[in-house]
Design a protein that fits this description.
Length: 415
Protein backbone atom coordinates (compact mmCIF):
# COMPACT_ATOMS: atom_id res chain seq x y z
CA UNK A 1 0.00 0.00 0.00
CA UNK A 2 1.27 3.48 -0.76
CA UNK A 3 0.28 7.09 -0.22
CA UNK A 4 1.81 10.47 -0.89
CA UNK A 5 2.34 11.21 2.80
CA UNK A 6 5.60 10.38 4.55
CA UNK A 7 5.54 8.80 8.01
CA UNK A 8 7.82 7.90 10.92
CA UNK A 9 8.46 4.47 12.42
CA UNK A 10 10.49 3.73 15.57
CA UNK A 11 12.11 0.58 17.00
CA UNK A 12 14.26 0.00 20.07
CA UNK A 13 16.95 -2.41 21.16
CA UNK A 14 18.69 -3.09 24.47
CA UNK A 15 22.26 -4.06 25.24
CA UNK A 16 23.61 -7.37 26.50
CA UNK A 17 23.86 -5.74 29.94
CA UNK A 18 20.19 -4.74 30.14
CA UNK A 19 18.60 -6.65 33.06
CA UNK A 20 16.10 -8.54 30.88
CA UNK A 21 18.87 -9.51 28.46
CA UNK A 22 21.06 -10.67 31.36
CA UNK A 23 18.22 -13.01 32.28
CA UNK A 24 17.79 -14.17 28.67
CA UNK A 25 21.51 -14.93 28.32
CA UNK A 26 21.64 -16.90 31.56
CA UNK A 27 18.64 -19.00 30.49
CA UNK A 28 20.19 -19.65 27.08
CA UNK A 29 23.62 -20.41 28.57
CA UNK A 30 21.99 -23.17 30.62
CA UNK A 31 20.17 -24.39 27.49
CA UNK A 32 23.49 -24.51 25.59
CA UNK A 33 25.11 -26.44 28.43
CA UNK A 34 22.32 -29.03 28.27
CA UNK A 35 22.43 -29.37 24.47
CA UNK A 36 26.23 -29.75 24.51
CA UNK A 37 25.96 -32.85 26.67
CA UNK A 38 22.59 -34.11 25.43
CA UNK A 39 21.14 -32.81 22.12
CA UNK A 40 17.73 -34.27 23.04
CA UNK A 41 17.47 -32.15 26.20
CA UNK A 42 14.09 -30.65 27.02
CA UNK A 43 14.58 -27.23 28.53
CA UNK A 44 12.27 -24.50 29.77
CA UNK A 45 14.49 -22.30 31.92
CA UNK A 46 13.47 -18.96 33.43
CA UNK A 47 15.74 -16.44 35.15
CA UNK A 48 15.19 -13.39 37.35
CA UNK A 49 18.00 -11.00 38.25
CA UNK A 50 18.01 -8.11 40.69
CA UNK A 51 20.48 -6.53 43.13
CA UNK A 52 23.25 -9.12 43.62
CA UNK A 53 20.80 -11.97 43.05
CA UNK A 54 20.04 -14.42 40.23
CA UNK A 55 17.19 -16.91 40.54
CA UNK A 56 16.91 -19.72 37.99
CA UNK A 57 13.95 -22.08 37.82
CA UNK A 58 12.09 -24.22 35.34
CA UNK A 59 11.65 -27.66 33.86
CA UNK A 60 14.64 -29.50 32.41
CA UNK A 61 14.96 -33.13 31.34
CA UNK A 62 18.55 -33.87 30.33
CA UNK A 63 21.57 -36.12 30.76
CA UNK A 64 23.72 -33.03 31.33
CA UNK A 65 25.20 -32.29 34.74
CA UNK A 66 22.86 -29.87 36.52
CA UNK A 67 24.44 -30.06 39.94
CA UNK A 68 24.23 -26.94 42.07
CA UNK A 69 27.96 -26.33 41.57
CA UNK A 70 27.76 -26.63 37.77
CA UNK A 71 24.73 -24.35 37.34
CA UNK A 72 26.26 -21.81 39.71
CA UNK A 73 29.41 -21.73 37.56
CA UNK A 74 27.43 -21.31 34.31
CA UNK A 75 25.52 -18.36 35.77
CA UNK A 76 28.58 -16.61 37.20
CA UNK A 77 30.54 -17.10 33.96
CA UNK A 78 27.67 -15.57 31.99
CA UNK A 79 27.44 -12.56 34.32
CA UNK A 80 31.21 -12.09 33.99
CA UNK A 81 31.09 -12.40 30.18
CA UNK A 82 28.40 -9.74 29.99
CA UNK A 83 30.67 -7.38 31.92
CA UNK A 84 29.34 -7.27 35.47
CA UNK A 85 32.57 -7.69 37.43
CA UNK A 86 32.54 -4.69 39.79
CA UNK A 87 30.71 -5.40 43.09
CA UNK A 88 30.36 -1.67 43.79
CA UNK A 89 27.62 -1.31 41.14
CA UNK A 90 25.30 -3.75 42.91
CA UNK A 91 25.53 -6.80 40.64
CA UNK A 92 28.68 -8.81 39.96
CA UNK A 93 29.74 -12.33 39.03
CA UNK A 94 31.69 -12.89 42.26
CA UNK A 95 29.24 -11.51 44.78
CA UNK A 96 25.78 -12.35 43.39
CA UNK A 97 23.70 -14.85 45.32
CA UNK A 98 22.54 -17.72 43.11
CA UNK A 99 19.29 -19.60 43.75
CA UNK A 100 18.48 -22.63 41.58
CA UNK A 101 15.20 -24.56 41.44
CA UNK A 102 15.04 -26.87 38.43
CA UNK A 103 12.97 -30.02 37.94
CA UNK A 104 11.93 -32.39 35.13
CA UNK A 105 9.47 -31.53 32.37
CA UNK A 106 5.83 -32.44 32.99
CA UNK A 107 5.09 -35.99 31.74
CA UNK A 108 1.81 -34.68 30.30
CA UNK A 109 3.79 -32.44 27.94
CA UNK A 110 6.47 -35.06 27.24
CA UNK A 111 3.83 -37.58 26.14
CA UNK A 112 2.90 -35.47 23.10
CA UNK A 113 6.41 -34.22 22.31
CA UNK A 114 7.93 -37.72 22.41
CA UNK A 115 5.95 -38.71 19.32
CA UNK A 116 6.96 -35.61 17.37
CA UNK A 117 4.24 -33.18 18.39
CA UNK A 118 4.62 -29.50 19.17
CA UNK A 119 5.77 -28.64 22.69
CA UNK A 120 3.01 -26.05 23.04
CA UNK A 121 0.12 -24.45 21.24
CA UNK A 122 0.36 -20.99 19.71
CA UNK A 123 1.01 -18.92 16.63
CA UNK A 124 4.40 -17.72 15.44
CA UNK A 125 5.31 -15.02 12.91
CA UNK A 126 8.24 -14.35 10.63
CA UNK A 127 8.99 -11.23 8.62
CA UNK A 128 11.40 -10.00 5.96
CA UNK A 129 11.66 -6.95 3.72
CA UNK A 130 14.16 -5.38 1.35
CA UNK A 131 15.10 -2.38 3.53
CA UNK A 132 18.49 -3.81 4.50
CA UNK A 133 20.95 -6.36 3.12
CA UNK A 134 19.90 -8.69 5.93
CA UNK A 135 16.25 -8.28 4.82
CA UNK A 136 15.32 -6.81 8.20
CA UNK A 137 13.30 -3.64 8.87
CA UNK A 138 15.70 -0.70 9.05
CA UNK A 139 14.78 0.80 12.48
CA UNK A 140 15.33 -2.40 14.49
CA UNK A 141 18.42 -3.28 12.46
CA UNK A 142 20.06 0.09 13.24
CA UNK A 143 18.98 -0.07 16.88
CA UNK A 144 20.65 -3.48 17.23
CA UNK A 145 23.86 -2.27 15.62
CA UNK A 146 24.04 0.66 18.05
CA UNK A 147 23.95 -1.54 21.16
CA UNK A 148 26.23 -4.11 19.54
CA UNK A 149 28.81 -1.40 18.82
CA UNK A 150 28.26 0.01 22.31
CA UNK A 151 29.37 -3.36 23.69
CA UNK A 152 32.45 -3.41 21.42
CA UNK A 153 33.51 0.07 22.53
CA UNK A 154 32.99 -0.88 26.19
CA UNK A 155 34.82 -4.19 25.98
CA UNK A 156 37.77 -2.70 24.08
CA UNK A 157 38.04 0.25 26.47
CA UNK A 158 37.63 2.73 23.59
CA UNK A 159 34.94 4.48 25.66
CA UNK A 160 36.09 3.93 29.22
CA UNK A 161 33.01 5.33 31.00
CA UNK A 162 30.54 2.87 29.45
CA UNK A 163 28.96 0.26 31.71
CA UNK A 164 27.04 -2.78 30.40
CA UNK A 165 23.42 -1.53 30.57
CA UNK A 166 22.21 0.47 27.56
CA UNK A 167 19.19 1.09 25.33
CA UNK A 168 18.92 2.43 21.80
CA UNK A 169 16.01 3.70 19.73
CA UNK A 170 15.92 4.71 16.07
CA UNK A 171 13.21 6.57 14.19
CA UNK A 172 13.22 6.39 10.40
CA UNK A 173 11.24 8.66 8.10
CA UNK A 174 9.60 6.73 5.27
CA UNK A 175 8.31 7.94 1.94
CA UNK A 176 4.66 7.37 1.11
CA UNK A 177 5.57 4.24 -0.88
CA UNK A 178 7.19 2.66 2.21
CA UNK A 179 10.82 3.21 1.21
CA UNK A 180 13.17 4.76 3.81
CA UNK A 181 13.87 8.44 3.19
CA UNK A 182 16.16 9.39 6.09
CA UNK A 183 17.18 8.67 9.66
CA UNK A 184 15.11 11.04 11.77
CA UNK A 185 15.93 10.54 15.48
CA UNK A 186 18.29 8.46 17.62
CA UNK A 187 17.93 7.84 21.36
CA UNK A 188 20.84 6.30 23.26
CA UNK A 189 20.87 5.75 27.00
CA UNK A 190 23.94 4.18 28.57
CA UNK A 191 24.91 3.31 32.08
CA UNK A 192 28.14 5.12 32.98
CA UNK A 193 30.68 5.51 35.74
CA UNK A 194 31.19 8.60 37.92
CA UNK A 195 33.94 10.07 35.73
CA UNK A 196 31.40 11.71 33.39
CA UNK A 197 29.26 13.33 36.08
CA UNK A 198 29.86 17.08 36.07
CA UNK A 199 29.93 19.59 38.91
CA UNK A 200 26.17 19.98 38.54
CA UNK A 201 25.73 16.29 39.32
CA UNK A 202 24.61 15.48 35.77
CA UNK A 203 25.99 13.53 32.81
CA UNK A 204 28.25 15.92 30.90
CA UNK A 205 27.65 17.34 27.45
CA UNK A 206 31.22 16.41 26.53
CA UNK A 207 30.37 12.75 27.23
CA UNK A 208 27.31 13.07 25.00
CA UNK A 209 29.50 14.32 22.16
CA UNK A 210 31.84 11.35 22.65
CA UNK A 211 28.85 9.04 22.17
CA UNK A 212 27.81 10.86 18.99
CA UNK A 213 31.33 10.87 17.56
CA UNK A 214 32.44 7.36 18.54
CA UNK A 215 29.20 5.38 18.50
CA UNK A 216 26.19 6.93 16.78
CA UNK A 217 27.73 8.60 13.73
CA UNK A 218 30.12 5.73 12.85
CA UNK A 219 27.30 3.19 13.17
CA UNK A 220 24.91 5.12 10.95
CA UNK A 221 27.66 5.80 8.40
CA UNK A 222 28.66 2.14 8.28
CA UNK A 223 25.09 0.96 7.70
CA UNK A 224 23.18 3.62 5.75
CA UNK A 225 25.21 6.73 4.91
CA UNK A 226 22.68 7.53 2.16
CA UNK A 227 20.03 8.15 4.83
CA UNK A 228 22.10 10.70 6.78
CA UNK A 229 20.75 13.90 5.27
CA UNK A 230 21.87 16.43 7.84
CA UNK A 231 23.97 17.02 10.95
CA UNK A 232 23.54 15.00 14.13
CA UNK A 233 22.21 17.51 16.66
CA UNK A 234 22.25 16.95 20.43
CA UNK A 235 18.96 17.54 22.23
CA UNK A 236 19.94 18.59 25.75
CA UNK A 237 17.72 17.41 28.61
CA UNK A 238 15.85 20.15 30.43
CA UNK A 239 16.49 22.73 27.73
CA UNK A 240 14.07 24.09 25.19
CA UNK A 241 14.69 22.38 21.87
CA UNK A 242 15.16 24.40 18.74
CA UNK A 243 13.15 23.28 15.76
CA UNK A 244 15.53 21.03 13.79
CA UNK A 245 16.64 22.14 10.38
CA UNK A 246 15.64 20.08 7.37
CA UNK A 247 17.38 16.71 7.49
CA UNK A 248 18.99 17.10 10.92
CA UNK A 249 19.08 13.97 13.07
CA UNK A 250 17.98 14.68 16.63
CA UNK A 251 20.09 12.76 19.18
CA UNK A 252 18.74 12.24 22.69
CA UNK A 253 21.58 10.89 24.84
CA UNK A 254 20.94 9.95 28.47
CA UNK A 255 17.87 12.19 28.36
CA UNK A 256 17.06 11.76 32.08
CA UNK A 257 20.37 13.44 32.90
CA UNK A 258 22.12 10.50 34.61
CA UNK A 259 22.34 6.72 34.29
CA UNK A 260 24.94 5.75 36.90
CA UNK A 261 22.72 3.19 38.65
CA UNK A 262 21.75 0.52 36.14
CA UNK A 263 21.78 -3.16 35.31
CA UNK A 264 19.96 -5.58 37.62
CA UNK A 265 20.71 -3.26 40.56
CA UNK A 266 18.66 -0.52 38.88
CA UNK A 267 15.86 -2.68 37.51
CA UNK A 268 14.75 -6.28 37.99
CA UNK A 269 15.27 -8.42 34.87
CA UNK A 270 13.23 -11.38 33.64
CA UNK A 271 13.62 -13.91 30.85
CA UNK A 272 11.36 -13.27 27.88
CA UNK A 273 10.43 -9.66 28.55
CA UNK A 274 12.01 -8.21 25.39
CA UNK A 275 10.15 -10.17 22.72
CA UNK A 276 9.73 -7.22 20.33
CA UNK A 277 13.43 -6.39 20.61
CA UNK A 278 14.11 -10.07 19.85
CA UNK A 279 12.11 -9.98 16.62
CA UNK A 280 11.23 -7.06 14.31
CA UNK A 281 10.92 -4.00 16.51
CA UNK A 282 7.15 -3.88 16.12
CA UNK A 283 7.24 -3.93 12.33
CA UNK A 284 5.89 -7.47 12.05
CA UNK A 285 3.41 -9.20 14.31
CA UNK A 286 4.44 -11.31 17.31
CA UNK A 287 2.69 -14.45 18.50
CA UNK A 288 3.49 -13.62 22.14
CA UNK A 289 5.80 -16.48 23.05
CA UNK A 290 9.33 -15.71 24.25
CA UNK A 291 12.39 -17.50 22.86
CA UNK A 292 15.16 -17.68 25.44
CA UNK A 293 15.56 -20.67 27.74
CA UNK A 294 13.51 -22.95 25.45
CA UNK A 295 14.81 -25.97 23.56
CA UNK A 296 13.75 -26.36 19.90
CA UNK A 297 10.82 -28.68 20.62
CA UNK A 298 9.16 -25.50 21.87
CA UNK A 299 7.59 -24.08 18.70
CA UNK A 300 7.49 -20.64 20.34
CA UNK A 301 11.14 -20.55 19.37
CA UNK A 302 11.75 -23.03 16.56
CA UNK A 303 8.66 -22.18 14.49
CA UNK A 304 9.40 -18.44 14.83
CA UNK A 305 12.87 -19.18 13.42
CA UNK A 306 11.29 -21.20 10.61
CA UNK A 307 8.80 -18.43 9.84
CA UNK A 308 11.70 -15.96 9.52
CA UNK A 309 13.56 -18.46 7.30
CA UNK A 310 10.52 -18.79 5.02
CA UNK A 311 9.85 -15.05 4.82
CA UNK A 312 13.50 -14.25 4.14
CA UNK A 313 13.76 -16.79 1.33
CA UNK A 314 10.58 -15.50 -0.31
CA UNK A 315 11.93 -11.95 -0.28
CA UNK A 316 15.41 -13.08 -1.36
CA UNK A 317 13.77 -14.87 -4.31
CA UNK A 318 12.15 -11.53 -5.20
CA UNK A 319 8.72 -13.10 -5.04
CA UNK A 320 7.69 -10.16 -2.83
CA UNK A 321 9.19 -6.92 -1.58
CA UNK A 322 8.08 -7.79 1.95
CA UNK A 323 6.62 -10.93 3.46
CA UNK A 324 5.02 -11.90 6.74
CA UNK A 325 4.35 -15.55 7.57
CA UNK A 326 2.23 -17.05 10.33
CA UNK A 327 2.42 -20.67 11.50
CA UNK A 328 0.15 -22.06 14.21
CA UNK A 329 0.32 -25.29 16.22
CA UNK A 330 -1.60 -27.40 18.74
CA UNK A 331 0.29 -29.02 21.61
CA UNK A 332 1.23 -32.61 20.84
CA UNK A 333 0.16 -32.32 17.18
CA UNK A 334 2.96 -32.27 14.55
CA UNK A 335 1.58 -30.45 11.53
CA UNK A 336 0.83 -26.71 11.56
CA UNK A 337 -2.86 -25.92 11.88
CA UNK A 338 -2.50 -23.16 9.31
CA UNK A 339 -0.06 -21.22 7.16
CA UNK A 340 -0.83 -17.57 6.43
CA UNK A 341 1.11 -15.21 4.20
CA UNK A 342 0.76 -11.45 3.81
CA UNK A 343 2.94 -9.53 1.35
CA UNK A 344 1.09 -6.22 1.70
CA UNK A 345 0.45 -6.13 -2.03
CA UNK A 346 4.13 -6.37 -2.95
CA UNK A 347 4.25 -9.74 -4.76
CA UNK A 348 6.00 -10.09 -8.10
CA UNK A 349 3.83 -9.96 -11.20
CA UNK A 350 1.79 -13.14 -11.56
CA UNK A 351 2.40 -14.29 -7.95
CA UNK A 352 -0.30 -14.35 -5.26
CA UNK A 353 -0.16 -14.87 -1.51
CA UNK A 354 -2.11 -18.13 -1.94
CA UNK A 355 0.52 -19.41 -4.36
CA UNK A 356 3.19 -18.57 -1.81
CA UNK A 357 1.39 -20.75 0.75
CA UNK A 358 1.52 -23.66 -1.73
CA UNK A 359 5.23 -23.06 -2.29
CA UNK A 360 5.85 -23.03 1.46
CA UNK A 361 4.13 -26.37 1.90
CA UNK A 362 6.22 -27.84 -0.91
CA UNK A 363 9.66 -26.50 0.02
CA UNK A 364 9.73 -26.34 3.84
CA UNK A 365 9.42 -29.01 6.53
CA UNK A 366 6.99 -27.60 9.09
CA UNK A 367 6.56 -30.30 11.73
CA UNK A 368 8.59 -29.67 14.90
CA UNK A 369 10.89 -32.54 13.90
CA UNK A 370 11.22 -31.20 10.35
CA UNK A 371 12.02 -27.69 11.61
CA UNK A 372 14.64 -28.98 14.04
CA UNK A 373 16.32 -31.12 11.41
CA UNK A 374 16.23 -28.66 8.52
CA UNK A 375 17.58 -25.78 10.65
CA UNK A 376 19.89 -28.05 12.70
CA UNK A 377 18.60 -26.64 15.98
CA UNK A 378 19.85 -29.24 18.47
CA UNK A 379 23.15 -27.39 18.92
CA UNK A 380 24.50 -25.08 21.64
CA UNK A 381 23.97 -21.90 19.60
CA UNK A 382 21.46 -20.00 21.69
CA UNK A 383 23.46 -17.82 24.08
CA UNK A 384 24.51 -15.68 21.12
CA UNK A 385 20.89 -15.21 20.00
CA UNK A 386 20.00 -13.64 23.35
CA UNK A 387 21.89 -10.43 22.62
CA UNK A 388 21.75 -8.04 19.67
CA UNK A 389 18.79 -9.79 18.04
CA UNK A 390 17.77 -13.28 16.94
CA UNK A 391 17.33 -12.15 13.34
CA UNK A 392 19.25 -10.17 10.73
CA UNK A 393 22.72 -11.34 11.77
CA UNK A 394 24.84 -13.21 9.25
CA UNK A 395 26.31 -15.75 11.66
CA UNK A 396 26.99 -19.28 10.44
CA UNK A 397 25.16 -20.80 13.39
CA UNK A 398 21.97 -18.87 12.57
CA UNK A 399 20.71 -21.26 9.90
CA UNK A 400 17.35 -19.47 9.71
CA UNK A 401 19.16 -16.51 8.14
CA UNK A 402 20.28 -18.53 5.11
CA UNK A 403 18.64 -17.92 1.71
CA UNK A 404 19.44 -21.35 0.27
CA UNK A 405 15.81 -21.96 -0.76
CA UNK A 406 15.47 -18.76 -2.77
CA UNK A 407 16.56 -20.14 -6.15
CA UNK A 408 14.22 -23.13 -5.94
CA UNK A 409 11.30 -20.94 -4.89
CA UNK A 410 11.94 -18.54 -7.75
CA UNK A 411 12.15 -21.36 -10.30
CA UNK A 412 9.01 -23.06 -9.01
CA UNK A 413 7.13 -19.76 -9.20
CA UNK A 414 8.07 -19.50 -12.87
CA UNK A 415 10.22 -16.36 -12.51
Amino acid sequence: MSSTKSYLFTSESVSMGHPDKVADQISDAILDHCLTADPTSRVACETMVTTDLAIVSGEITTKADLSRETVDKIIRNMIREIGYTDPSIGFAAKTAQIHVNLHAQSPDISMGVDVGGAGDQGMMFGFACRETKSLMPLPIYLAHRLVENHAKLRESGAVAFFRPDAKSQVTVEYNGDGTPNRIHTVVLSTQHDASVIGKNGKFTDDARRVIVDKLILPTLKAERPDLIKGELVLVMPGKASKKPKEGEIACHINPTGNFEVGGPHGDCGLTGRKIIVDTYGGRGRHGGGAFSGKDPTKVDRSAAYMARYIAKNIVAARLAHECEVQLSYAIGYPDPLNIWVNTNGTTAKGVTDDQLVDLIRKHFLLTPKGIIESLNLRRPIYKETARHGHFGRELKAFTWEQTDKAAALKKDAGL
